[in-house]
Amino acid sequence: MLRQVLSGFIRLHILYHAELEPICGVEIMEELRRHGYKVGPGTIYPMLHDLEEAGCLSRRDTIVAGKRRRNYRITKRGSRLLGAAKGKLRELFRELVEDRTPTK
Hints:
The chain is α+β, with helices and mostly antiparallel strands. The protein has helices spanning 2-20, 25-34, 41-53, 76-96, and strands at 57-64, 67-74. It is globular, with a radius of gyration of 15 Å.
């Protein structure tokens, strides 16, 4: 169950960083490790592919040192999703961390 929850957090990290600059799988794995996530290629690359298929990321292939590198950027759809998720995350943070129930 924890794995499913963390999967959502990882996807948010991916969208956030793809909004800031183009990302690739290896770089985002390193960034996630800095945050304490233990993720490998078998986790990251399917997520990147799923987010691309869902229209949240776009991909551009380049050649770096003779190897193909897939760079991802957030799309307008991904930005809208990230914005909506940020709102829900703020609400959840207030409830879980600050012990305040949302006002309606």
